[in-house]
Amino acid sequence: MKADTVVELGAFKFSGFEVPDKIPFGGDQQTVVHKLIGGARQVDSMGRDDAPLEWSGIFRGDSAQLRALYLDGLRIAGTQQQLRWYGFDFTVIVQSFRADFERFYHIPYKISCIVVADNASPITTIIAPDVDTLIGDDMAAANTLGGAIGDGPLSTALGTLNAAIKGVSSFATAANGVIQSVLQPLAAVQSRVNILIGSVGGVVGNIGTFGGLLPGNSISQQANKMLGQVAVMNQLPQLYNLQSTLGRMGKNLGQ
Asked: What domains are there in the chain, each with its CATH number?
């Protein structure tokens, strides 16, 4: 969390090193589980059970002690306060406040607030990522997989596809001809992946013994064969992941 993020607890506004790096939020759903004969279950939802809002920071400067004592006063009073930061809005009670007096100008602290109410409007709909984000994310994943696979022609084809994608300002408004200019290098990458899957799959299927553990084979031969077999076995799932990623890219481009 940036130091300039506004975090307010009642009339108290955190600033500088007082602003926490993070404030975890969320919690549980209270449930009652009825176990029925035959293994069936009936689960009753009893409502939200918010986790305490907890964070830490450091009071610094001439007013550090007074500011720490003010927050401790909120704990002592036990009154409801409004906690706000970056669109979050809770009614809370300060359950716990701990501070370490190191210097009058340097006092680290920890605070924990019990949630009384969530005052923000619940989010009930979600906006799907736009097609440019989806394709960009898949291209990044494909590049990572291609680097792990380590096949020269595949890396070249991925580079061509990557350049074609970067040349499109927006897929949402792109003309059909522009989409085709991306689908062609995509098809070339898919073709290379299919070739590699067939080749690697054939090698895996022909492995008779793991590591070539046969009488007459030297230890160095067995070690080299074992390393080669492990590399091939590791490569196959990466190829299938890449095949799936490319297929998803094709569907998004088609839409």
From this structure: 7-118 (2.40.30), 131-254 (no CATH)
